[in-house]
Amino acid sequence: MPRASFTVSTVIKVPLEQVFVYVSDLTRHGEWASDPVQIVPLSEGSISVGSRYRSTAQSHGVTFHSELEVTECIPPTRFAFVGEDSTGRVNHSFAFQSTDHGTLVKRQMQFDVNLLQWLAYLAVVYPVRIPSARRTLQLLKERLEQMNTVQATTS
Predict the structure, then answer these.
(1) Which of 54, 108, 111, 137 has the fewest Cβ atoms within 10 angstroms?
(2) Which residues on neighbouring strands pair with residue 1, listed in sequence order?
């Protein structure tokens, strides 16, 4: 089965640990997603490999219901989860690295697709998904930097 993937990245002027904690809390993804999304936990306890969630997202007028599972959680450098819905299976992974200017965040999305889906992905989804993923990381950056500024001024 072919695999389609892409990676986007940005530098966020916020400490590494703070970025990791925020991104690894899947219930907060709706605060910075480019499309409306609500994620609720199905598992109790702290975030760890195997933690499960249910996601309801809207994109271009279509509602998607996904089951999510955390597949990697290595604080504060790696976090990943897989989502599965009617369109297939998508692996989301985040890598975090401290830099002189904050935290470098790299997000990779990998789609397990059949040959026909892969061709559609190249023709239609790729041009839509990459700009959306870039917008999402920009929103994450803005949200975290704004939260960090508010915390600094209230401290």
Answers:
(1) 54
(2) none
Sequence-distant (6+) residues with CB within 8 A of 43 are: 50, 51, 52, 53
CATH topology of domain 3-154: Alpha-D-Glucose-1,6-Bisphosphate; Chain A, domain 4 (3.30.530)
* pLDDT score for 48: 97
Residue corresponding to tokens 């990779």: 108
Collect all residues with Cβ–Cβ distance below 8 Å to 9 and sequence separation of at least 6. Answer: 104, 105, 106, 107, 137
The whole-number pLDDT of residue 4 equals 78
- Which of these, 152, 136, 151, 142, lies nearest to 29 by C-alpha position? 136
Reduced to 3 states (helix: H, G, I; strand: E, B; else coil), residue 75 is coil
pLDDT value of residue 2: 64
Beta strands at 102-112 and 52-59: parallel, antiparallel or unpaired: unpaired
pLDDT averaged over 10-residue windows placed end to end, the chain, 155 residues: 83 98 97 94 96 93 93 98 87 97 96 76 73 93 92 74
Q: Which amino acid is at 33?
A: A
Taking the complete model, does pTM exceed 0.70, yes or no?
yes
Instruction: Quickly tell me which residue has 């195997």 as its tokens.
Output: 50
Q: For residue 136, count other CB atoms closer than 10 A to its CB.
A: 19
